[in-house]
Design brief:
The complex is a heterodimer. By secondary structure, chain A is α/β, with parallel strands linked by helices. Chain A is 42% helix and 14% strand. In chain A, helix 5 (154-165) packs antiparallel against helix 6 and helix 11 (281-288) crosses helix 12 (294-308). The longest helix of chain A is centred in the first third of the chain and has 27 residues, at 2-28. By secondary structure, chain B is an all-alpha fold. Chain B has one domain (74-354): ABC transporter involved in vitamin B12 uptake, BtuC (Orthogonal Bundle). The chains are: A alpha/beta, B mainly alpha.
Chain lengths: 314, 355
């Protein structure tokens, strides 16, 4: 009787602990530098041997033609490198470019559909380092590279590694350079503007982004001063008092109506000035995917920050 | 003669001490809760803000003083009301089922509320779009989550009672089993809905652990009537609960309408617990532990037990919320985790001391 009554809550606790473990493993895992093999002419690019973000040594013997991408930014990178026609399946969240939406959906980080992936017989799986997918698929004999950019400067490295894995080293170097140029252009545009106090909400619990996180770094690049103190964990559940006292001039990630309804928030500068912006799902993807469109994501953030600072008409 | 008089005064003294002690702890908790938080606010500002608020001028406050009156004060009171509802409801459920492991969630309140809240989180936008208008991808409209959770909680209890009723006169065991089954089925549905729409997993999980982050004066005003009516009704029925502890047969002679007593206690206890859960999410352990602690520290008659359990539940939850806000500033911990970590060891200590 007691066991039965307790079971539901026990289940939640287990689920939460697993989720927390998975998340913390993903975030805190040591990040060995990608061990790039010495440069070789493009024709003789294979076999390619690289270290992935889990510290595994991954060897791709011949040029891959059946690629599975299990992270939206990897999918975007593959298409940007011109090998989209070799992608045979993607994760549930990959929705760009439009061609990717027609590919088989193979689950998400924590629930990869292993059987479906095996049935596609991929010769290369590019996944993220979090979740059970890399290990589970590698156990089945697949070639799996697992990694992602968790800091802004890692974006270029990951693009180049993915390029090497699929035999597009030169294209990847060019793509990384283009992304870098995009980002620098946005930064140059906002350099003259004043810094703006900003609050970025992930969900109304409220979870937010701290300065040390990927998104936090993006905000800082385009003139945002995060109201969340430095040294806070990357995605903290914050005490709402901190936001009120920080008095952000721009708030991103919630609607103006929601903000105005919260206790004590109606006096916040951003709320009084109407500088509260809810991103569209497409914009959210741009700012949260460390892939080839990151420059566009940065431009989205810059635009809202400038608009909130009263410099938005340009 | 004098002996029984002494015993009576000893009992009365113990009863008074338990009520006063729990009330004092609650008062202390309320002061701490208003005085501390994610920020440091000096005492003068805090006292000034509370003073202005009590004089009805809270709306005019700005800056840190506004935080004290519009954020902290309703948060402290909401935690107290929710804790009182859960503590009192827990004592009533343990009394009516004559089962020390009973708690307010025994008949499906937690799982029903979770399902209601999850439906609001995941389908709220679509439902609003269908009936009111707007985009299907909009978030759930303001106020939908507590209403859905409240309806879900009471719906689960009604379902449990209805299922148990089918087999002639309702037995306590049948009710408990029906509660377990209803709870499991609703949890399964909740999990399915949540995993189907992963973008809301964090919102749902946070909700199921309870939160006072967005406590408002209007929430306090919304819960208060349920707390007063629910807990008041339980106090009125307390004598019947005392009789029940002597066994069903004895109780039947003392309380002729045992079936109605059961329905009444379950209805009042469920009302209080459902209102509590609807606004702040499922907060575990308070409803289980507060009555046990007060049964040991106070007197076991149900009128005292219901009062002290409510006070102790309120105090525990207010203090747990203080801890949740301050141990890892500026990050907040889920208050449900803190209640368990605070209440659990204390309860074990009490049990061992007794044994």
């Amino acid at each position: 009787m007691r066991v039965g009554a307790k079971a539901p809550r026990f289940f939640w606790v287990v689920l939460l602990v697993l989720l927390a473990l998975a998340l913390s493993c993903g975030r805190d895992a040591p990040k060995p530098p990608a061990d790039l093999a010495p440069a070789a002419p493009a024709a003789a690019a294979f076999p390619v041997t690289v270290r992935d973000d889990l510290g595994r040594t991954v060897t791709v013997k011949t040029e891959p033609h059946r690629i599975v991408a299990l992270l939206p930014s990897h999918t975007e990178t593959l298409f940007a490198l011109g090998v989209g026609d070799r992608v045979v399946g993607v994760d549930d969240f990959s929705d760009f470019p439009a061609e990717a939406t027609h590919l088989p959906k193979l689950g998400a980080l924590y629930e990869p559909r292993v059987e479906q992936i095996l049935a596609l017989a991929p010769d290369l799986v590019i996944a993220s380092e979090g979740g059970p997918a890399p290990e589970r698929l590698a156990e089945q004999g697949l070639v799996v590279w697992a990694g992602s950019a968790r800091q802004l400067d890692e974006v270029y490295r990951v693009i180049e590694v993915v390029g090497r894995l699929v035999g597009k080293r030169d294209a990847a170097v060019a793509l990384a350079a283009r992304v870098r140029a995009d980002i620098e252009r946005v930064e140059a545009d906002v350099r003259s503007g004043r810094r703006v106090r900003v609050y970025y909400e992930l969900d109304p619990t409220p979870y937010t982004v701290a300065p040390g996180s990927f998104l936090g770094a993006l905000l800082a690049r385009v003139g945002g001063d995060n109201v969340i103190p430095k040294g806070t964990e990357d995605f903290p559940r914050i005490g709402p008092e901190v936001v009120i006292a920080g008095d952000p001039e721009v708030m991103i990630g919630l609607t103006a109506e929601d903000a105005a309804r919260r206790p004590g928030w109606s006096h916040i500068t951003a709320v009084r000035r109407g500088a509260v912006y809810k991103l569209t799902p497409a914009e959210e993807n741009l700012v949260s995917r460390p892939g080839p469109r990151l420059g566009e994501g940065l431009a989205v953030l810059a635009r809202y920050l400038r608009r909130g600072a009263g410099e938005g008409s340009r | 003669m004098s002996g029984s008089g002494e015993r009576f005064s000893g009992r009365a003294g113990r009863r008074l001490a338990a009520i006063a002690g729990a009330a004092l702890l609650l008062a202390l908790g309320l002061v701490m809760s208003t005085g501390t938080g994610s920020l440091s606010i000096d005492t003068a500002t805090t006292l000034g803000a509370v003073g202005a608020g009590l004089r009805g001028r809270g709306e005019e406050l700005v800056g840190l003083a506004a935080i004290v009156w519009t954020v902290r004060a309703p948060r402290a009171l909401l935690a107290a009301l929710v804790g009182a509802c859960l503590g009192g409801s827990g004592a009533a459920m343990q009394g009516i089922f004559v089962n020390p492991l009973a708690d307010p969630y025994l008949l499906g309140i937690a799982s029903g509320a979770s399902l209601g809240a999850t439906v609001a989180f995941t389908e709220g936008g679509r439902l609003a779009a269908a009936f009111v208008g707007g985009s299907p991808t909009q978030p759930a409209p303001e106020g939908m989550v507590p209403v859905a959770a409240f309806v879900g909680a009471l719906g689960a209890v009604v379902l449990t009672m209805a299922l148990a009723r089918r087999r002639g006169p309702t037995q306590a065991t049948t009710l408990l089993l029906a509660g377990v089954v209803v709870g499991s089925v609703l949890i399964a549905l909740t999990t399915y809905l949540m995993l189907r729409d992963p973008s809301h997993v964090r919102a749902v999980l946070s909700w199921t652990l309870g939160s006072f982050s967005w406590s408002r004066w209007s929430d306090v005003r919304s819960i208060a009537p349920y707390a007063v009516v629910g807990l008041g009704a339980l106090l009125v029925m307390a004598r019947g609960l005392d009789a029940l502890q002597l066994g069903d047969d004895t109780a039947r002679t003392l309380t002729p309408r045992l079936g109605w007593l059961r329905v009444g206690v379950i209805a009042a206890g469920s009302l209080a617990a459902a209102a509590a859960v609807a606004f702040v999410g499922v907060i575990g352990f308070v409803g289980l532990v507060a009555p046990h602690v007060m049964r040991r520290l106070g007197t076991p008659d149900h009128r005292t037990l219901l009062a002290t359990s409510s006070l102790a539940g309120a105090a525990l939850l207010v203090l747990a919320d203080v801890v949740a806000r301050t141990v890892e500033r500026p990050v907040e911990l889920p208050v449900g985790v803190v209640t368990t970590l605070l209440g659990g060891p204390f309860f074990l200590w009490l049990l061992r001391r007794e044994a």
